[in-house]
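User: For a benchmark we're assembling, each entry needs the component sequences followed by a predicted structure for the full assembly. Here are entry 17's components. Please fill in the structure.
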Amino acid sequence: MKMINREKEKDFLEKKIYSNKSELIILYGRRRVGKTFLLEKTFEEKAVFFTADLSNTSYLINRFSREIISKLPNFPGNIQVNQWDDFFGLLKMYLLQNRDKIIIFDEFQYIPFQDSSFMSIFQRWWDTEFSKMNVNFILCGSYSGMIEKIALEHNSPLYGRRTGQYKILPMDFFDSSKFLPNFNIEDKIYIYSITDGIPLYLKEFSEFSNFEEALFNRVFSPGEFLVEEGKFLTMEEFKKDPSNYFSIMRVIADGKTTPVEISNFSGVENRKISTYLSKLLDVELIKKEFPVSLKKPKRKPLYYINDEYIKFYFKYIFPNIDIIYRGHGEQLVKSILLEINNYTSFTFEKIARQYIERVESPQKIGKWWNKDIEIDIAAIKENKVIVGECKWTNKKVDNRVLQKLQLKTQKMIEEWNFEPDEIIYYLFSKSGFTNILEAENIKLIDLESLSELI
Ligand SMILES: Nc1ncnc2c1ncn2[C@@H]1O[C@H](COP(=O)(O)OP(=O)(O)OP(=O)(O)O)[C@@H](O)[C@H]1O
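Assistant: Structure for entry 17:
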């Protein structure tokens, strides 16, 4: 199967691995984002994978050792290995004969989770042997607070030893669209609002050409993978006490953004809500946003679901799971399609932000708000301010929208106490424009202009 996109990530890995010294790279990212696939496609037969799971330590050591022994000619195949030291001894023997191989510990986070001694043993082998052998190790893990703790915090034994780290991100809308060649731009946006830029989810849609049919067959039919994926991802992180986390995710998906609202609607006590929110932030199921500002933000943050699939899951799949399993997905799809434009308007803002990121490369980008007004996109690039307004409606956008944006921008700049050299206004519209002219500092972006970046 062909790899779509990921050129930057591939370049990073190749540059590191073909250096003339030992490398210890931490590669991490959300589940299903395509880490293993990237490693397989980049290194092909050079990659030697040791994929961990939740099995106990002696089973893992034995399984990993058998894999190495099978690659060592003339080595007795029937010995039992029970210690990490013995496994690393075998690995050294293998690497002395195969220095071009790249050793990958996949789903790495499970190993120290099962056995806390692993890290110090690995550290000793790295310091005394592997770091001097001009060999390459990649530790690959699903993003969770855990990978950060294991590998990227200052007090972790790996922190000072790692020679590189890369977080694999979901693809943006424009790259995601390459998975959906049979769909028009509008449907691509609807699909992105369900899959985010996760290759495995995008692939579920790629063989279809009709959005409604794909939605019914792949998301609202019993037994389909995407029906349970949101539960799986949440349960994986919160095996204990899942019900409060599910309630909180559900109300955030429904558009509640402040801790008080989230507590009121989820029924989780106000005094406990910040602990729950911070755990959800740790595992990146949610994110918090401050209004874009030049200095430290004064306002409190708002909370949002971090990705489009999880949001869609908690808004439309989780509350309707019984209906899906009773086989009434088709009616459900029809009723969801009646209101999907409201839901997709937020996705359209995310895509518009990605457009500005690609075209303008700003230093800061986000949303801006005060207690009365809100600007969908506000960005800063040196002394230039870039603002954007997004309309996902069936009406054409006219000059009034621009005037309103100009007034709001004035207020924002006054609050920032800043005199920009230039202000660029972006208007994004699903249905195009009327009675408004494009200019050097007024950019009108319709769906056709968006397609130009695909
Ligand atoms: N760049 C890509 N182009 C095409 N298909 C891709 C790409 N990346 C991933 N995929 C598809 O998505 C599937 C899942 O990706 P992969 O297993 O690499 O994710 P992962 O990040 O390792 O997930 P996990 O953490 O859950 O193990 C792959 O088997 C492949 O089919």
